[in-house]
Amino acid sequence: MPSEGIWLFALLLMAFSVCMTVAAGLGVSMIVCPAYLVSEKLSFLTFGQAEYILQGILFIGLCFAVRRFKPVYLSAFLSCLIYGFVLDLFQKFIPLFNVAKTPPESLHIAARIALLIGGMTLTSLAVALFFKAYLYPQVYDFFVKAIVTRYKLREGLTKTIFDLSFLALSFLLSFALFGSLVGIGWGTLAMAVCNGTLIGLFSKLFDRFFIAKPLFPKFAKLFEI
Predict the structure, then answer these.
(1) Full-prediction pTM beyond 0.85?
(2) Is residue 22 part of a domain?
(3) How many domains does the chain have?
(4) DSSP per-residue letters across 47-67
């Protein structure tokens, strides 16, 4: 399979899956929760725009963590811009994903649970696909990919630790900005525990049936971490 196509599909899938979890109203992913909280507090920022800001901060932290910087790393922020733009488009033009038009409480609980499970599963699949592409994912997932590659760590375990760290940050931001839990629910906890395992599972399934190959091998070498 062409690596470039895998990257683009993963970006679109990630934006779609995040919209699913927001629409469920049972708690968003701990990774996107900080940006979600900022966008809820600052009404002039869209969810996607808040992502740009927070991922920019995380990108700076990544460069310190891997103790190196290459101009090509900035492509991870380009992925963030595309992801955030598509995320805002989905929420604007798909009624189900626009909570102003379709409040989660207006949906049957079975539909909300289905949205949550579907969103959690597709999010994990998207992250697993990002690991198979040479083009960098958005900064959240590139952070994990860079750390795993730089220090030869296990993907699933590293992702779980990263998720739990963002879960703690989400709790702190929620109480700091709203004085109560906002955007965090039992769905958030489920994703924190299960995402790493699901990513590892999807990664193994992909390797069993597919091989990712770049259409432009020389260009792909520029993205080696």
Answers:
(1) yes
(2) yes
(3) 1
(4) HHHHHHHHHHHHHHHHHHHHT
Calculate the CA dihedral of residues 99, 86, 135, 31 and round it to 10 degrees.
-20
CA angle 95, 83, 106 (to 5 degrees): 25
Helix axis angle, 139-151 to 109-130, nearest 10°:
50
Rounded Cα distance between 140 and 58, Å, is 8
Element spanning 68, H or E: none
Tokens 């109560």 label which residue?
180
Phi, psi of 194 (to 5 degrees): -95, -25
Domain enclosing residue 145, as ranges: 3-214
Contact by Cβ (8 Å): 18, 138: no
Structural domain includes residue 222: no
Q: Is residue 225 part of a domain?
A: no
DSSP 2: B
Name residues whose C-beta falls within 8 Å of residue 35's C-beta, 6 or more positions apart in sequence.
47, 50, 51, 53, 54, 55
Note whether residue 70 is domain-resident: yes
Per-position pLDDT tens, the chain of length 225 = 899 999 999 999 999 999 999 999 999 988 999 999 999 999 899 999 999 999 999 999 998 988 888 888 888 989 999 999 999 999 999 999 999 899 999 999 999 999 999 999 999 999 899 889 999 888 987 888 788 888 888 877 887 788 788 889 999 999 999 999 999 999 998 988 888 889 889 999 999 999 998 988 888 888 876
